[in-house]
Design brief:
With 382 residues, the chain is mainly α. It is built from 19 helices and three strands. The chain has a three-stranded antiparallel sheet. A hairpin with a 4-residue loop joins strand 2 and strand 3.
Length: 382
């Protein structure tokens, strides 16, 4: 980035002349703070300028001819933020990548590694747009290694990393990794900072990932997240209903919602996998509904609960055991599964009511045991 040899006051005066009227007062502040070397105040006013939609045409010239002249004196994370806003005005992704690569090199110093990570992650994002998957992965891996060395870092850095990492995995259709990183991204931001369109897109992608992730059988964190409400009353509201059907192991609701699968090619291609997944969910729900002392289930009971063929019961049990959805043992001779533990899940109102009944039964049995022990003690004393 070559800085034109033009006096700063002259440059700012030229830019002020061509700036929209509502932005012109900011140029007076630029010059005032620059002359007084009030770098923090100058940075804040620049951020205000760069955040204004009408500042677009002037962002790159001001960055190159003004900001770079004192770039080492301001917060380096905010320097990257300004660089990102300027890079958004580049004519294409190739130019934007070159621009952000220079920004990353400028902040690559021992005292500003957090800013370097931020800039590096954003170069990875641009490489994704350019379909350079290997280059993007390499940049993300470099950033992750540096992040792992930090005790703490600004949330904007983590948010950027998780967002771009999620986008990478989404492009690769690695659904479990996308799901994890997308939720971590949401944990780093205020969802009110996202536009309604961004909320719906994130909610849609997370829903698809939750359904298609081969290791994701507990949607609790997503079901409790307010982002899922962005799908209500939209063309994708059926996806939200489908997630709750999976969580409840509701086979009837699943069968009713299958008609929507042609709207999403990935779901349509994975229909058989999704049927197996809902069956496993129905199995865990059947176990969950039973009180802990009554979880020895015959194959016939499991068959009725999951609606599988008789020859599939043992396979489904072994699948559930291998995935860690349940713990227990299978008696193949007696055709009985003895379940000692079932994976916790987020409960809907019906499931909470079922738990209430189980607790009441447990309370009743404990009281009966207490009365029996009291009677035995009285008989002994007599």
């Amino acid at each position: 980035m070559d800085i034109d040899k033009i006096p700063i006051p002259t440059f700012l005066a030229q830019q002020n002349e061509i700036a929209p009227p509502e932005l012109q007062p900011l140029f007076l502040e630029f010059e005032d703070y620059w002359e007084r070397k009030l770098w923090h105040q100058l940075t804040e006013v620049l951020l205000q300028f760069y955040a204004h939609p009408l500042s677009g045409p002037q962002r790159i010239p001001i960055y190159k001819n003004f900001i770079l002249s004192f770039s080492g004196k301001i917060n380096q994370l905010k320097l990257v933020t300004l660089g990102l806003a300027a890079a958004a005005q580049c004519k294409d992704y190739e130019e934007a990548l070159e621009f952000m690569t220079d920004v990353a090199a400028k902040v690559n110093k021992p005292a500003s590694q957090d800013a370097y990570v931020y800039a590096t992650v954003e170069t990875a994002r641009i490489k994704l747009y350019l379909k350079d998957m290997d280059g993007s992965r390499k940049a993300l891996d470099e950033a992750e290694k540096i992040l792992d060395r930090f005790d703490s870092v600004e949330s904007v850095v983590h948010a950027s990393f998780y967002r771009v990492n999620a986008d990478y995995y989404n492009a690769k259709h690695e659904f479990a990794s996308y799901y994890k990183n997308a939720l971590l991204y949401l944990a780093c931001i205020q969802i009110t900072d996202l536009t309604p369109e961004e909320l719906q897109e994130r909610a849609y992608n997370l829903s698809i990932a939750a359904l298609l992730g081969e290791t994701i059988y507990n949607f609790g964190e997503l079901l409790l997240h307010p982002i899922l409400d962005s799908l209500k009353d939209t063309e994708h509201s059926w996806l939200r209903d489908l997630l709750f059907a999976f969580n409840a192991g509701d086979l009837n609701k699943f069968n009713a919602l299958v008609v929507h699968f042609p709207k999403q090619q990935l779901l349509e291609q994975k229909t058989s996998f999704l049927r197996e997944k809902i069956i496993l969910s129905a199995l865990t729900e059947a176990v969950f509904r039973r009180p802990p002392h009554d979880r020895a289930m015959s194959f016939q009971t499991i068959l009725q609960e999951t609606r599988v063929f008789p020859e599939e019961v043992e396979y489904m049990l072994m699948k559930a055991l291998s995935l860690g959805l349940i713990k227990g043992s299978i008696d193949q001779v007696a055709e009985v599964a003895r379940i000692s533990w079932v994976q916790p899940k987020v409960l809907d109102k019906n499931q909470i009511e079922n738990m209430r009944r189980n607790l009441q039964e447990w309370d009743t049995s404990v009281n009966k045991l207490g009365l029996w022990m009291e009677s035995k003690l009285e008989m002994t004393e007599a």
